[in-house]
Specification:
- The chain folds into two domains: about 5-220, Alpha-Beta Complex (Spore Coat Polysaccharide Biosynthesis Protein SpsA, Chain A), CATH 3.90.550; about 225-360, no CATH class.
- It contains 14 helices and 13 strands.
- The chain has helices at about 15-25, 45-55, 75-85, 100-115, 135-150, 155-165, 190-195, 250-255, 260-275, 280-285, 285-305, 320-325, 330-335, 340-360; strands at about 5-10, 35, 65-70, 70-75, 95, 115-120, 130-135, 170-175, 180, 215-220, 225-230, 235-240, 245-250.
- The protein has an eight-stranded mixed sheet, sandwiched between helices. A three-stranded antiparallel sheet has the order 11-12-13.
- Strand 12 (about 235-240) and strand 13 (about 245-250) form a beta hairpin.
- Helix 2 packs antiparallel against helix 5 (about 135-150), helix 5 (about 135-150) crosses helix 6 (about 155-165) and helix 9 (about 260-275) packs across helix 14 (about 340-360).
- The longest helix is centred in the C-terminal third of the chain and has 23 residues, at about 340-360.
- The protein is globular, with a radius of gyration of 21 Å.
Length: about 375
């Protein structure tokens, strides 16, 4: 896009003003503006600070980025930001994806398929680090002002409703160019959800040049896999004719596709026996949780292009960040029950088992409307 100009604003609480200033000062060439909560002693409400940040758009900007004060920017952030926006200049873009979110699963699938973008499929907008076209950003600021006046408090909810009302789909960049610092949450999210890191952070050690991103996106799946601690393990979100998604236990959905739980249990047992570190996994967590993790990876394989008879002999060549994205599956699932260091050790032990599950899913036929077909 010719003459791309991205203005940047940081949402900040007075208790985190130094963090916001560090973000501003880390890249003076971006001209970062800081939007401070105007009522820091009032009940928590992200919308009032978000409103100020979206109003802080530069007059000559083509796009506007709003990030929160707990953001961590990747190395070479300005050039990577430009490359990301240039690859999909018309779309709402998320630069961070929480490793335990629904969208994190789409991001991992995108990484495995070699796509640069993942459709955001969470209930609310991924508002932590969001880029909008300048005109759309100004429209949202006006919309947010009216919503705040009517009592709305959560910027992610209001932003999600605003974009959905315009028929716009958010896409998350893969890899992410923003991470989350995981300082104590002002809203208590760290106690409710645990550590919230990036699903796949481009922290500069992958050697990828800034213009790496293409416009290709992974999305449009009728069924998307998820591991939900609230819904009891492996879940399938099935899109209906209106685009809404209904959650079904993975075992039930797979049974509806002719893949019974007895078959799944037998396959899990074989893959467990063939994975040298699987015993370490079931010693660290229950076999029930290990089976749910295996089901999630099996669903990943079902969603990717097939291998074996009737399918390509080799999978699409993923970028070098695919392994990094897969390595966050386990930490994203167990973040509420294990410390972060222990979750990474568990991820390393579980990697062979989950790799076997994905390969088995690739070779399994679950009928039409499941696998991703690039446009």
């Amino acid at each position: 896009m010719a003459d791309l100009r991205v203005s940047v604003a940081v949402m900040a609480h007075p208790r985190r003003i130094e963090a916001a200033r560090r973000l501003r000062d880390s890249h003076p060439e971006l001209g970062v503006r800081i939007a401070v909560d105007p009522e820091p002693d009032a009940p928590p409400a992200t919308l009032r600070t978000s409103l100020r940040a979206w109003k802080a758009i530069a007059d000559d900007a083509t796009h506007h980025l709003v990030v929160q004060d707990d953001a961590v920017l990747c190395q070479d952030f300005p050039s990577r930001l430009a490359a990301v926006v240039e690859s999909r200049p018309e779309a709402p873009l998320a630069l961070f994806t929480d490793w335990g979110s629904r969208t994190a699963h789409m991001a991992r699938l995108a990484a495995l398929a070699g796509a640069s973008w993942a459709e955001a499929v969470d209930v609310v907008a991924p508002a932590h680090s969001m880029v909008l076209l300048a005109g759309l950003a100004r429209e949202f600021a006006a919309h947010a002002e009216a919503a705040a006046a009517s009592g709305a408090a959560d910027d992610a909810v209001v932003l999600g409703e605003f974009l959905a009302g315009r028929g716009l789909t958010v896409h998350a960049c893969v890899p992410n160019i923003v991470d989350h610092s995981c300082v104590p949450s002002l809203l208590g999210h760290d106690l409710l959800m645990g550590v919230r890191r990036s699903v796949c952070f481009a922290d500069g050690d992958d050697g990828a040049p800034a213009p790496w991103w293409s416009s290709e996106a992974f999305g449009g799946l009728r069924v998307t896999p998820h591991f939900s601690t609230r819904q009891g393990g492996a879940v399938c979100h099935v899109r209906d004719g209106d685009g809404d998604r209904q959650a079904h236990p993975a075992l039930d959905w797979l049974a509806s596709r002719g893949i019974g739980r007895h078959d799944l249990a037998a396959w899990f047992g074989r893959d467990h026996a063939d994975s040298p570190s699987a015993a370490e996994v079931t010693q660290a967590i229950s076999p029930v949780l290990a089976f749910d993790l295996w089901q999630t990876a099996f669903l990943y394989g079902l969603c990717l292009p097939a291998r074996g008879p009737g399918g390509p002999e080799e999978p699409p060549a993923p970028g070098g960040h695919a392994a990094r994205a897969l390595a966050t599956l386990v930490p994203g699932v167990v973040r509420r029950v294990l410390p972060e260091a222990a979750s990474h050790r568990l991820a390393r032990a579980a990697a062979p088992l989950l790799g076997n599950a994905m390969e088995r899913g690739r070779r399994t036929d679950a009928g039409p409307g499941v696998r991703w077909s690039p446009c």
